[in-house]
Amino acid sequence: MEPQNILLVDDHKIIREGIKHYLEGLDNVTVIGEAQNGQQALEWLKSNSKQVTIALLDIGMDGMNGIQLCEQILQLYPEIKCIALSMFSEPHHIKQMMQAGAKGYMLKNSTQEELKEALENVASGRNFFTSEVTNIIMSSMAGTNKKSYSKVSLEMPLTERELEVLELVMKEFTNNEIADELFISPRTVDAHKRNLLEKTGSKNLAGLVMYAVHHSLFDDLY
Length: 222
Prior knowledge:
222 residues, alpha/beta, Rossmann fold, Arc Repressor Mutant, subunit A, 2 domains, 6-stranded parallel sheet, 11 helices, elongated
């Protein structure tokens, strides 16, 4: 991984210290700035933005929250990549942070290895979401009714059968369970999954989930 300079924004000093301790144990990672709220972070960035590669942002801060801060950072300094590091595990927080432009979302119970993986992925231009965050998204999407798929069908040319497979994938059905539910063969299920990945430009199931979130599949859940 190329050297990464981190801006750490969290309103709890003890949490910043813990995260900083994690980060300092990683090769090529340096915490070059800290802030306890959004406004303080923006003031600091006025003089130091060119040094920062990644901003780690808490969400629940007084005044300007992490979602608003992410939007501001990307408007003013689009070269900086933002990752949410939050205690909030509700799907709408995840969705809002992604819509604000964050490249990753992690919970504060994440391991040092997950933090390392997040930085490596985001630094390389990829998105990163811990398995726990992905599972939260998938569990929420399992309750999505078929009306919401009309929005997805406008965004990507999926057939009715592919939409049915997608629904069952999001409910974490196995291939055999999907085959039984739709009266098709497991091989056909595999073919539909490949089509879903190809049409959405996703590399795996997690990517498919993230694509659906980016395209407002969550809207009917709130």
